[in-house]
Amino acid sequence: MSCAHFLVVLLGQRQGVDVTTNPKVQQEMKDFFLQYGVKQVAMSPGNMGCPHEEGEDFPYGEDCPFCPFWKGKQGSNQKE
Length: 80
What we know:
Blueprint lengths: L2 H9 L11 H13 L45
């Protein structure tokens, strides 16, 4: 399980246009980091992959129709 998936499992998935600036989400993250003794955090400047969910936004086994850049690069349709 990747670190990102681990956080989703522990914190629950956050969706919306303001999750990086939402005070409630920021407080939940702060509380999580304090609870687990997090000392350092690394961030990307933006999404790390298609933000759409396979099975939610498009069918399993298909590429995201909204993000042509990621075609064949992630999800269950990932090509080696």
